[in-house]
Amino acid sequence: VTLSGDVYKSGEKFPGARVNVTYNNQRYTILSDSTGHYSFNIPSRTEVYLEAYDGFGCAYSKSITLGISDAVDDPILSCDNYDIGVTVSDRFNTLVNDARVRLGNKDSSTGSGGVYQFNDVAPGTYTLSASRTTIVEGADGDETETTCSASKSVTLNSNMQESLTLDSCCE
């Protein structure tokens, strides 16, 4: 039986996705071709486990029981990643430049305007956080380093925009 299909990412055919099929305790791996298509020849009446990965954290899997027909043009694999924009401000709604922003294990810094965008992020629930370290001069002339921060949990299942307000130590 031929098991074949196309790998899609964000609505477009996706070449170079790693596609695994496991049956009889053996795993077989191919890359989708230049048009996003994959194809495996598998014994009939076999239960298989199919997986696809895009190399950027997005994964798809499902179990299929193959019959005795000559070809199964099944799963159209969909692997959609999303973008999330982050705006960082202080408690007076002033945008904070050069704040460190973190989404899961990805981190960067806001530019002018207190904004950063994480691109091509797999769907899921993440901790979104921001922080900024400032130097505060005390009455005695001594300088003290202070870090202010904010965080929240976000569920990413579409492109989105989020805001974080740093605590009061940033003024």
Helix content: under 10%
The end-to-end distance, rounded to whole angstroms, is 67 Å
The helix tally amounts to 0
Radius of gyration: 24 Å
Low-confidence stretches: none
Average of per-residue pLDDT values: 81
Specify the biggest β-sheet: 5 strands, mixed
Q: What global shape is seen?
A: elongated
Number of DSSP strand runs: 16
> Strand-residue fraction?
over 45%
Give the oligomer, counting copies of the same chain as homo and different chains as hetero: single chain
User: Which structural class fits the helix and strand makeup?
Assistant: mainly beta
Following the backbone from N to C, one meets helices and strands in this order, namely: EEEEEEEEEEEEEEEE
Account of the protein in words:
The chain has 171 residues and is an all-beta fold. It is 0% helix and 60% strand. It has no helices and 16 strands. The chain has strands spanning 2-9, 12-13, 18-23, 26-31, 37-41, 47-53, 59-65, 71-73, 77-78, 82-89, 100-103, 106-109, 115-121, 124-137, 143-156, 160-165. Strands 1, 2, 5, 8 and 9 form a five-stranded mixed beta sheet that branches. Strands 4-3-6-7 form a four-stranded antiparallel beta sheet, with no helix packed on it. It has a four-stranded antiparallel beta sheet with strand order 12-11-14-15, with no helix packed on it. A hairpin with a 5-residue loop joins strand 14 (124-137) and strand 15 (143-156). The chain is elongated, with a radius of gyration of 24 Å.
What characteristics describe this protein?
mainly beta; five-stranded mixed sheet; 171 residues
